Amino acid sequence: MQSRSIDLPGQSDLTGNLTLGWENDKLSLRISANYKSDYLDEVGDVLDKRYDYRVDDQLFVDLSASYFLTDNLQVFMAAQNITDESYYVYTGSRRYNAQYEEYGPTYKVGLTLTHF
Q1: Is the pLDDT of residue 109 over 90?
Q2: In the chain, where the domains are located
Q3: Is there a contact between 10 and 40 (Cβ–Cβ < 8 Å)?
Q4: pLDDT digits (tens, 9 = 90+) for 2-52
Q5: First vs last Cα of the chain: how many Å apart?
Q6: Within the chain, what is the greatest distance between any pair of CA atoms?
Q7: Is there a contact between 26 and 71 (Cβ–Cβ < 8 Å)?
Q8: Residues pairing with 77 in the sheet
Q9: I need a labelling partner for 21 at 20 to 30 A (CA). Which of 30, 50, 58, 98 fits?
Q10: Rg for the chain (alpha carbons), in Å?
Q11: C-alpha of 43 from chain center
Q12: Judging by DSSP bridges, how do beta strands 27-36 and 39-42 pair with one another?
């Protein structure tokens, strides 16, 4: 009887987060990185891993900054996925594409008013 070991779907072997920041009374700056290694998304054939769907590893980098214009008014900026990381799913080997998506970076700018 043929058998094989199957990874737990959706679980990366390696994950990591790193945030570096600096701030004072007026200014706050942050850069963050989030990494996860490739992982099993879906079992394609219980006896042959060549048909499994795997999500490729990903590294997301984000930036944020805020500045107090007054004691009650703050301007902020956030940039997410600044490295334009894609979502790539493959079957068996990275050269066999099953799904590819690009989201691009996201930017936010705004004001926060506090009055208390």
Answers
A1: yes
A2: 15-113
A3: yes
A4: 778 889 999 999 999 999 999 999 999 999 999 999 999 999 988 888 999
A5: 71
A6: 73
A7: no
A8: 65, 109
A9: 58
A10: 21
A11: 23
A12: unpaired
